[in-house]
Predict the 3D structure of the following.
Amino acid sequence: MKVEQVYAFISVGDEGEGIIGQTVPMAGQMVFMPFVCADKARMESLKPMAEEINKRTGQKIKIIKFTNRKEIGRIG
């Protein structure tokens, strides 16, 4: 399966836009996990967490779907 689309949860504020996410424990440390995914089911599963962030912070959040795939490089 190829990634043909990407969904991102974007905060909107006076300073501009940014990707939201949450900090989760991973391998003994706290790691920031951005709310970015490649399928609609995962996007739907992230919505309740984004709604909770909105309730706690009042931050407006957009869900953006990117569909214009262009490979710009490779590593390895």
Summary: The CA atoms of residues 21 and 49 lie 9 Å apart. The first helix runs from residue 40 to 57.
